[in-house]
Design brief:
Blueprint: H1 3-25, H2 28-32, E1 35-44, E2 53-55, H3 57-69, E3 81-93, E4 96-107, E5 110-124, E6 127-140, H4 149-153
Parallel strand pairs: 1-6
Antiparallel strand pairs: 1-2, 3-4, 4-5, 5-6
Amino acid sequence: MTLEDLLAREAIRDVMAKYTTSGDRLRIDDFVSCFTADAVMESEHVPEERTFRYEGREAIRAWQARWLEGKGDTHGATFVRHHLSTSKIDLTGKDSARARTYWVAWTDIGPDHAGYYLDTFRKVDGEWLIAHRRVRLDWEADTSLFRTAVANSNG
């Protein structure tokens, strides 16, 4: 492993942390800046009524704006904290990488839901960004505050 590889992996981890903290705090500009202009963000392995797919920064921005505005009574949480844990990052080229990262979301009820991200990253103008994020749900609490949130925030 080279110094350049280590720096790439750390930059990718930084983007993941920025995505998580920005999303939890609804800092839309910071959240959207984690993605390439043509990024895709989509769900996998969730019930049909909770699937989503957003293509491009503007679609992702509009989705986050609906959360911030509370459109559709998105959820009843007074706080959300996504915690990232194991992350396997594979550099697939000089300017490309894939990652699998486990996450769990905490809300007022404690552990609310959990899963993993399957990501493709691309380096654009010297900056690592998410080009494609697949959000997989493995588990949710029976009393999850997010059970209807995704469906209610779809545009």
